[in-house]
Amino acid sequence: MADRSEQLRQQVLDARREGRALRIVGGNSKAFLGRQVDLAQDTLSLAEHSGIVSYSPVELVLTARAGTTLEEIDAALAEHNQMLSFEPPRFASGATLGGTLACNLSGPGRPWWNSVRDQVLGIRLLNGYGEHLRFGGQVMKNVAGYDVSRLQAGAMGTLGVITEVSLKVLPRPAVSCTLSYEMPLDEALSMMNRRAVEPRPLSAACWLEGRLYLRLSGAASAVDATAARWGGERLPDAERFWQQLRDQQLEWFCSEQPLWRFSVNPTARLPERDGHWCIDWGGAQRWYRGAAELAEMETLASAGGGQVSLFRGGARDGEVMHRQSEALQQLQLRLKDAFDPDRLFNRGRLYGWM
Q1: Distance CA 300, CA 216 (A)
Q2: Residue 72 to residues 12, 110, 122, 268, 318: CA-CA distances in angstroms?
Q3: What phi and psi, each to the nearest 5 degrees, are found at residue 170?
Q4: Max CA-CA distance within the chain?
Q5: What is the pLDDT of residue 139?
Q6: 175-246 maps to which CATH number?
Q7: Tell me, which fold does domain 255-312 have in CATH?
Q8: 8 close to 126: Cβ distance less than 8 angstroms
Q9: Does domain 5-171+331-339 have CATH number 3.30.465.10?
Q10: Apex CA 281: angle with CA 62 and CA 56, to 5°?
Q11: How far is CA 80 from the centre of its chain?
């Protein structure tokens, strides 16, 4: 654990002076995300820039360097029965806090416990000029003008090098249980949408291979009363099921076929398409496994009021993210010009035109 801020800053300054692009890497557990980029780009590694800077269990706030692993953060929070409420996925060992924010990744509880973007309070960032800047802070109301901290969520390192993150943490629920039901997809979507608006301790809702799974989390009295009311079968070893869903370790994900991620209206009924579906986030996140063209998948996503990306596999030398409108493209390019005018960081990783 060490503060490597000055070394990182010097590497950015050297790259700018010499006109060299930089490929930002943390734990490298999410290298498959985004477009395939030129691996000849110099690597800027944050793996050694790690460690928890401060942690206040009473205030529910933790600050850590970007290269800090999720395992280290989990261990510190567990001592006080707290957690990262957005349940960050870990696709491989060594996943880091900075990479999780840069890729905007959240787990099954996201609709009920918020996303990583929602929990971020502030960051430190190296821009393309080699300036080490601070945005936000360590309290909830500390934003004036653009919320640059949350702007980094999903930017995949194209707007700068995240060096430090402050975020809100939450207490662990007292108890959890998972109810399981056998039912087809359409019926499961309807039930998820109905259950989501009830004043009950629902914390995850997923449909996979003909079964609906509803997770309840909270006070024992509320969980037990809801389980008795909703019926269904109690799933044994439920914690492992949700962990494997979060980390894409379930057998359903173990395929050579391309994996597409849809973010849509949870009530949307997408047009029929042959293939394999997994529904998460109560219908708001949908995974499709199968070969397809980005344009046709964008049509499906638009029909559901959302967007799609080629999450894993498939051809990655072209665009893999949903096409942006001309207005949004111009806005993103203006942000890129402001933070990284020389196009040093993760060139082409998010979009070919960035």
Answers
A1: 31
A2: 27, 21, 20, 38, 36
A3: -135, 155
A4: 66
A5: 52
A6: 3.30.70
A7: Alpha-Beta Plaits (3.30.70)
A8: yes
A9: yes
A10: 10
A11: 24
Mean pLDDT of 205-224: 97
The answer, yes or no, to whether residue 9 has pLDDT greater than 90, is yes
Q: pTM for the complete prediction?
A: 0.94
In whole angstroms, give the CA distance from residue 333 to residue 324. Answer: 12
pLDDT in tens, 85-134: 999 999 999 999 999 999 999 999 999 999 999 999 999 999 999 999 99
- The two beta strands, 120-126 and 132-136, are antiparallel
Radius of gyration of the chain, Cα coordinates, nearest whole angstrom: 21
309 phi-psi bin (left φ>0, alpha ψ -120 to 50, beta other): beta
**Per-residue confidence (pLDDT) for residue 138, from 0 to 100:** 62
pLDDT digits 0-9 by tens, 148-173 = 889 999 999 999 999 999 999 999 99
79: its two tokens: 């001592």
83 bridge partner residues: 170
According to DSSP, the residues that pair with 125 across neighbouring strands are 133, 162
pLDDT at residue 274 tops 90: no
Q: How far apart are CA 33 and CA 29, in angstroms?
A: 9
| Segment 3-22 mean pLDDT | 96
Same fold, 175-246 and 255-312: yes
